[in-house]
Amino acid sequence: MGSNSFHLVIAREQDGSLQILHKEKQQVQLAQGLSPDGILSSDAMERGLNCLRDFSQRFSNLCETQVRLVATHTLRVARNRDAFVSAALKIIPYPIEIIPGHEEARLIYSGIAQSQVLGKRNLVIDIGGGSTEVVIGEKNQPMQLSSLRCGCVSYNERFFADGQLTLAAFRAAQSAADKQFASLSKEYFSGNWEMVLGSSGSVKAICEALAELYGDETVTLSRLKELKLRLVQWGEISQVQLANVEARRVPLVPAGLAILISFFRRLGIGRLDFTQGALREGVLYELAGIGQYQDIRQRTVESIAQLYHVDQQHAAKVRDTVMAQFEQVADDWQLRPHARLLSYAASLHEIGIHINSRGHHKHGAYIIAHSDLPGFSQDLQRDLALLIANHRKKPDLEAIGALELGHRLAMVRLLALLRLGVLTHLGRIAPPLTLKCSAIDSEQLLVRPQKGTKFNLLLKDLQREQKRLAPLGLKLELEGMDRL
């Protein structure tokens, strides 16, 4: 679900590779309905929802189907995106992943890596409707990921909305894009690229336009400037004659061209080639779990744990305890979809100790909230940070209370299990205390120690937990501890 177009791809896994069965797209132009203060218009939402209604008919009756819905820049920045997501869930009953810009960039590079052989040192640009992703990669591995606030739909609205193609409009658009590219890290300006590649619709349309002028799709700065002068000579978008370019794409060519010219000038690019792969292919291969894309999130968790010197032996013990408790209540509390989130939180709950042990839950949450986490959507990253922030001490009632009701209930239940698991491992050397958990109802958790458990301190800790969980609407019932 991009800022310009929504794409549907249906594929099947065949002997370790993907066979594309069906492709379809609709030009929804969500970004066109995004106001300067970040409010998505009802008209734009309805265009998106109508597209989802159409797409749902293509796969709703397929058997053994894995479905992944990924949204990019416009829904990433829209302040009222929850209204769209709620309406979309009634049409297609699968969660929408609103991915961060760096995750979009990673998936784009992954998709390209599946579509062609890459060089030792590569630079990739993908001009979308609302954002532009720029990636440095070494062979199949992305090394630097950046997402910039410039896109063909948003820049069309800002600089070419009246349909007039003037040098002044191009200068203004290029100047705005220059500021975005100037924010890139120094690695992007080092040059010596073995391959410079462009992906997705805007770059493709520009290549198709250049093919009309020169007979091939080679992209150089001089050719881009010549195309800009041709557009200015036509004077207005209604007069543009580009037979090779899809008619609906033509109005977005000037904005995409301004961004691409800025990219060439600011980063000193000599030549660019178009590549077929992009975000969709990256999503598909990870969804299928093929090759190097198996469980990217688990690799991310392990990498973060190593980076912040987590005591992984202790973290594994806590995780095993937490997940054992999870199994005891998961079905009654309908928590199955959140199993991996809870496992990640247990594995990483102590990453903040690397900064300071006293408030390590807060430091850990900050690290998670402000890190690039390959494989994680914005919402999953937010939930992980929230669990880590509240795994000890008094819970943040305001942050948890701000969640949507159904999601808040799930998060409170996960939080209770995480806190109990951490609590039973407070003595790092002594054998862990063991608890049995049962869901009495939606708001009560019964906790009792296994036989032989010494619970002098445990009872005090659990009584403290009773008081801390009560304001969240969860009552902790203690059983079998009356012998103290």
UniProtKB/TrEMBL annotation:
Domain of life assignment: Bacteria
A Pfam family matched in the record: Ppx-GppA
Record-linked CDD domains: ASKHA_NBD_EcPPX-GppA-like (cd24053)
Keywords, in A-Z order: Hydrolase
One of the record's GO molecular function terms: exopolyphosphatase activity
Domain Ppx/GppA phosphatase C-terminal: 296-465
Cross-referenced Gene3D superfamilies: 3.30.420.40, Exopolyphosphatase. Domain 2, Hypothetical protein af1432
Signal sequence extent: none
Biological process annotations from GO: polyphosphate catabolic process
InterPro entries for the chain: ATPase_NBD, GppA/Ppx_hydrolase, Ppx_GppA_C, Ppx_GppA_N, PyroPPase_GppA_Ppx
Occurrences of domain Ppx/GppA phosphatase N-terminal (ranges): 9-287
Protein name in UniProt: Ppx/GppA family phosphatase
Species whose genome carries this gene: Shewanella cyperi
